[in-house]
Amino acid sequence: MTRPFIAARGMNVFYGDKQALFDIDLDIEANKVTALIGPSGCGKSTFLRTINRMNDLIANCRFDGSLQIGGQQVYDTAVDVVALRAQVGMVFQKPNPFPKSIFDNVAYGLKIHGLASSKSELQDRVEWSLKSAGLWDEIANRLDQPGNSLSGGQQQRLCIARTIAVQPKVILMDEPCSALDPIATAVIEDLIDSLREDYSIVIVTHSMHQAARISQRTAFFHLGRLIEAGDTTQMFTTPREEQTQNYITGRTG
Amino acid sequence: MKNAHIVARFDEDLSKIKTRILEMGKLVISQIKDASAALERLDASEVDRLIATDRRINGMNKDIHNRAERLIALRQPVALDLRQAILPINMAGELERIGDHAKSTAKLARKLSDAGAGEQVMRMVQEMSVLLQTMLAQALIAYSHSDIKLAAEVREADKEVDRLNKAVFAAALQAIRQSPAEAEALVRLILLARNFERGGDHVVNMARHVHQIVTGEDLKASS
After folding, report:
1. pLDDT grade for A66, boundaries at 50, 70 and 90
2. Which residue among A122, B21, B89, B116 is least enclosed by CB atoms within 10 Å?
3. E strand residue ranges, A45-109
4. B169 Cβ under 8 Å from any chain A Cβ
């Protein structure tokens, strides 16, 4: 087994008195797509949001245990959360472009993190990001138009371009295709597959078949616990746990 | 199945495939039985009926294939469900081939006129037939109850069929030496025994499929 890039050990997360995650041990490998699956309220999105400390924004949310990215403790008090979120980008369920032009949506992160030293470098990196997100050919001649003038699928690819512009190590995706039609979904899925060459991707999805199609690793959560994690092929052919089998085959129990 | 699908129709579709396999298997067993009886009595009167029934068996194979294909396309099953949808296609194929062997057995009743020197050989061939019917019945029970222990017993029982096949060959060879005039009938019995031996192999494959449905392990790949 390759060395995990993200390693959770004995991880517990609480919202006030309510415990959302129980003693999670999970490895996320580099340059792979890891799908987090499980019924609503199982803790998969909570787990996702602990990786870039999005849960810090929720009052009363408490974390204990260990979470390391590339050997660094994410919950160390010395960690600069803004820098962390540049390393760990996030794409949300609903495309959420800024109310700015297509160009400025992508340039925004580069500017605030000071990642482009000149105008031409900024332009190059915006172009590279849009190309990497598979959007360039569709919008190259209208970069000054508002981001929200694009179709849903294009907006989601714009959000992905915005995320990868700052060259993160990890991309977190929270149901990135749930608001998209099947064609736009297929385009995003294809993009995710090509992005994993350069990034480690963790994706929350409610679609079993999407998890099976796009991920190499799958982790199944239920009632705040990690029931089983393994290679996606194994999880969808011969899951070890009956609870996993019941969930992926759509059975009660 | 301990847990039912949330979508009840999914369970109905899967269980229909299972029922069809069991019905097809039952019909194949009765074909082997009737064909062997016709052969033993050298009675050609049943042959046409048995040939017609074989066409029905072929139709059932096609029906199972179509049902499984539809279920895969519409429900996109995974894990156990996927194996429950795919492996019956193979199982129906095995049954269809056993059915073909039964048909050849029945046709032989037209060609043989008197067992004569081959009487002992015929007895062994009939013994193979009974064994094959028992193995097939057990394979179907193993499938119906997801019983991998019984499936393993079926695979083991095939050794006796193989032994009998060799014994038929040896006995027929000896009989040919003693009564060269009956060589044709005896060679036909050797070929028939080989049909039953092949039938045993098909049942073994079915038992392997049962094991694979339940455990996910492909015994053929690991053997």
Report:
1. very high
2. B116
3. 61-69, 72-73, 88-91
4. no
Q: State the smallest CA–CA distance between residue A250 and chain B in angstroms.
A: 6
- Single-letter amino acid code for the residue at B30: S
Question: Across-strand partners of A90?
Answer: A172
Please state the domain extents for chain B: 8-222
CA distance A79 to A158: 28
Superfamily of structural domain B8-222: Phosphate transport system protein phou homolog 2; domain 2 (1.20.58.220)
Measured torsion, CA atoms of residues B146, B149, B151, B155, in degrees rounded to the nearest 10: 170
Cα-only R_g, chain B: 19
pLDDT of amino acid A3: 65
The answer to whether the CB of A212 falls within 8 A of the CB of A232 is yes
Instruction: Tell me what pLDDT residue A253 has.
Output: 64
Residue B118 has pLDDT above 90, yes or no: no
CA atoms within 13 A on the CB side of A209: 11
Alpha-carbon distances, residue B139 vs B134, B144, B148 (angstroms)? 9, 9, 10
B73 Cβ under 8 Å from any chain A Cβ = no
What CA–CA distance (Å, rounded) separates A147 from A144?
Answer: 9
Nearest CA to B126 out of B151, B109, B150 is that of: B109
Could you tell me which chain B residue has the CA closest to the CA of A236?
Answer: B79
Q: Does B141 lie at the interface with A, CB-CB under 8 angstroms? A: no
pLDDT for residue A118: 94
Q: Is the pLDDT of residue B54 over 90?
A: yes
Among B3, B79, B215, beta carbon nearest to A253: B3
Whether chain B has a CB inside 8 Å of the CB on A249: the answer is yes
Which residues fall within 8 angstroms of residue A244, CB to CB, at 6 or more apart?
A: A220, A227, A228, A235
Chain B contacts of A213, Cβ < 8 Å? Answer: none
Nearest CA in chain B to A235: B79
Q: Which residues of B touch A250 (CB under 8 A)?
A: 5-7, 10
Chain B residue closest in CA terms to A244: B79
Cα–Cα distance between A29 and A26 in angstroms, integer? 10
Chain A contact set for B87 (CB, 8 A): none
Q: Does B42 touch chain A (CB under 8 A)?
A: no
Distances (CA, A) of A15 to A51, A52, A59: 16, 17, 8
Closest CA–CA distance from residue B2 to any residue of chain A (Å): 9
Residue B140 CA: distances (Å) to CA of A208, B124, B154? 32, 24, 10
Cβ burial B40-61 (10 Å sphere, 16+ → b, else e): eeeebebbeebeebbeebeebb
